[in-house]
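Summary for the steering committee. One of the milestones for this cycle was to obtain a three-dimensional model of the protein with zinc ion bound, which we needed before selecting residues for the alanine scan. The sequence and ligand used are listed below.
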Amino acid sequence: MISILEQNSKLSDQNTNPALVVIKNQPSYSIYQRAVKDIITIDEMLKILKKIDGKYVLFKNGRGVIGATAAIAWSPKREGKTYELITYREPGRWGTKREIDDDTVKEMDKIYTTTFDNYDYLNHHNRIKPNSPCPILYGIRGLKPDDLIKACKHVKSEKVNSWLIFETNQGTDDHIQRKKVNEVKPYQSVLIKGEVAEPPFTIKGGHVIIKIKDETGVIDCAAYEPTKQFRNIIRNLIPGDRLEVYGGVREQPLTVNMEKIKVIRLKKHVIKKENPICQVCGKHMKSIGKNQGYRCVICGVRDSEPLMEESKRGLKTGFYEVPVCARRHLSKPVKLITPLHKKREEG
Ligand SMILES: [Zn+2]
């Protein structure tokens, strides 16, 4: 086992720090939850393993011990789970450009509706194909193993050397914790409910920021440039809109990196229609000056407010998410949020 790891690990890569963990009894599910929702250090994980008599081998800094132990502690029966069919390349092709026919990926995506995050139609990005020079050809994620096998047969590509279906926590939102604004901590992934406090604004780099407030405080939430079209949704929000925001938290400055939002209530957007009409003369009044109100030029009657009208909103209530190309693996795609789930949330 150790020799397989030694032979196949790309130890020269600075982000490759593998570990091998063997445990007789499954560790507590809470270890998985902590690893996926919060921070757990290598030392803490080693202490936990010693306590439950787990055996391990570490390579380099051994960070892989966190994921390996958490994976053993995971219980797919507890909460939602998904599957991923992973195909592997012929060893001679490792590191070369992958040959996958995009059109068949799009077709597969449309035919097999229980699969998800296959193709980004907005940004023309084939999401089943990894970017790294790893031995994986592609991975199709979905809810039903049988559909994954059929979906795989639909994709035209270079020769598939072998394939395997994994149970996974992808697309489950397992990382998300519901928090009040003043409870939000760096590196967590949170769900906060609140109101837009100020009009959205764009900062250098094309990132769009909104401030969300609840009864405990205000926090910045960002739609970063890589979230592309999602930023247009955020730009359409106005103060008073009520939302739920899902996202990971960065430390400096403390900001929620939005993965998706649920618009719960849209505030009526009223804008000035025209100057007020004089009740005596029936004519439009003239503005006296900025914030000074209006006056009838014929009889001199004053009024402070113009005539207002409701402006149409470019948004509806419901979920909005970042495009497929910007989606994190754990993030639950809106297409998997079933009507049953919605009902529970609203009730
Ligand atoms: Zn008048």
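Key point for the committee: The CA atoms of residues 10 and 16 lie 7 Å apart.
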